[in-house]
């Protein structure tokens, strides 16, 4: 169970701060369950209430600073996604994002970068789908790394370029 003040990943909402843990304080609603009140860090004026035992949405701790630094070292060794059917690529991207697994998200970013380079070499532009999912994946990864490394999300890309030449 997470505690008040913890930073967690909550599904597609990304990094959230646990604002409160306890029952819903509403006399008309008491299901006997304990809830998290979450404040998404990168979504303005938003709040989420979810049962602590919610198993339908991925909830996990944000990487620690040491875990983030170790993870960054592994990025060059992370491969691309195994795309079996081009017609279902959006599903593959969505599935990778739903895991909230930074390794799968980096795989997705690498896959899209490879696809974009290949299209540009053929004189074509990136597909709208690749562009869309690239930004979502980057946003997800950079959001977590920013919290873990105590920096602004906008600084993460440069930080990764400094640590990983060619990234």
Protein architecture, described:
A 5-stranded antiparallel β-sheet has the order 4-3-2-1-5. The mean pLDDT is 93. Helices cover 44% and strands 15% of the residues. It is an alpha+beta fold.
Helices, by number, come to: 5
User: Which series of helices and strands comes N to C?
Assistant: EEEEEHHHHH
Structural category is alpha+beta
What is the CA-based Rg, rounded? 18 Å
- Termini Cα gap: 35 Å
Question: Helical percent range?
Answer: 40-55%
Low-confidence stretches: none
Main beta sheet: strand number and arrangement?
Answer: 5 strands, antiparallel
Strand content: 5-15%
Mean pLDDT figure = 93
How would you write the strand order of the largest sheet? 4-3-2-1-5
Shape call: globular
Number of strands: 5
Quickly list its features.
single chain, 167 residues, 44% helix, 5 strands, alpha+beta, globular
Q: What is the topological layout?
A:
Layout: E1 7-10, E2 15-22, E3 35-40, E4 48-51, E5 59-61, H1 65-74, H2 89-99, H3 102-121, H4 128-148, H5 153-163
Antiparallel strand pairs: 1-2, 1-5, 2-3, 3-4
Helix pairs in contact: 2-4, 3-4, 4-5
